[in-house]
Design brief:
By secondary structure, the chain is mostly beta strands. Helix content is 2%, strand content 46%. The strands form four sheets. Strands 3, 4, 5, 6, 7, 8, 9, 10 and 14 form a nine-stranded mixed beta sheet that branches. Strands 1-2-22-21-20 form a five-stranded antiparallel beta sheet, with no helix packed on it. A hairpin with a 3-residue loop joins strand 17 and strand 18.
Length: 304
């Protein structure tokens, strides 16, 4: 997929992608959502996204349109944002929920990590009311069985009743699982390894000469398709799709060869330079991707 360096300054337009077509759907309007590290589609409204900032920006959820239009923010009461790096939406016992993953650890110096689950609120006349807040429905405090990890990818597998966490800085990355149920709240949980992800190609010598070059292959986001059969992993270079047959495990799926969703090199697309958030559209026909930074672009990429 080729996008000019000034693509974010033009009107939305289609561009050719290696696996279909991509569209610049808009730009994040909010002046506060400057380090978008997690994003997913609403379980309540078809035209709504939820997003979070990286650490240091407070415990807030941001509502935005598919075109990036700001539709309000809410405080997650009782939560802290040490290093929020992932977000996923899901339906649990007929309730639309949002999971927030406080799992970042660049220096690998923390012994425990936290997942917050809140019920997705309804908007009032297309916006969140001023000073909105949400209570934590349950939280899960956990550690890894082998020490500290930095992670930026999180996804909920509702059918399996588990949360998937993907580490970033290992070579290869490691996929872990945790119980989703609220019964896990109130007790300390140890994540279980699911498998290693060794099929993402390492950066080429040419890649290493540019932005994020030596880090091109590190996963920065994770999501599952609505039917739970396809997993997408985002890196600074490309996105990768791992599929599984009914009844197959994620262990076997992440050990298989992924399909590649080709993205422009970060140095060629300022609107998508530090890509750290990805999610499937509700119909699973496309992927929505955005970046950290001031008013970055939101891109819709054909997921096939």
């Amino acid at each position: 997929m080729l996008i000019s360096a000034d693509a974010q300054d033009t009107a939305p337009s289609p561009v050719v992608a290696g696996s279909g077509e991509a569209i610049i759907a808009g730009r994040i309007e909010s002046d506060r959502l400057v380090e978008c590290s997690g994003m997913d589609t609403s379980m309540v409204a078809a035209d709504l996204l939820w997003a979070v900032n990286d650490g240091g920006h407070g415990p807030f959820l941001y509502a935005l349109g598919l075109d990036g239009r700001h539709r309000g923010r809410l405080r997650v009461a009782g939560a802290g944002n040490r290093d929020w790096e992932g977000l996923d939406t899901f339906v649990w016992q007929d309730r639309p929920m949002i999971l927030i993953a406080d799992v970042g650890d660049n220096d690998r110096r923390h012994a425990r990590y936290t997942l917050y689950v809140v019920e997705e609120p309804n908007l009032d006349r297309d916006r969140l009311p001023f000073s909105s807040r949400a209570e934590v429905a349950w939280r899960i405090d956990f550690s890894y069985p082998d020490g500290s990890h930095d992670a930026e990818g999180v996804a909920v597998d509702v059918a399996a009743g588990e949360i998937l966490i993907l580490t970033k800085r290992e070579d290869p990355p490691i996929l872990f699982s945790l119980p989703l149920s609220a019964a896990a709240a109130g007790r300390f949980v140890t994540a279980k390894p699911v498998g290693t992800v060794d099929r993402i190609p390492p950066p080429s010598n040419q890649d290493r000469q540019h932005d994020f070059g030596q880090f091109y292959s590190q996963p920065t986001a994770l999501d599952l398709s609505p039917d739970g059969r396809t997993m997408v992993m985002l890196t600074y270079r490309h996105a990768y799709l791992f599929s599984r047959m009914p009844g197959a495990s994620w262990t076997s799926a992440v050990g298989s060869r992924p399909a590649i969703i080709h993205l422009p090199p970060p140095h060629d697309c300022r609107a998508l330079r530090q890509r750290e958030a990805i999610c499937f559209s509700p119909d699973a026909m496309s992927l929505m991707i955005t970046s950290e930074g001031d008013h970055p672009g939101i891109f819709a990429v054909t997921a096939r």
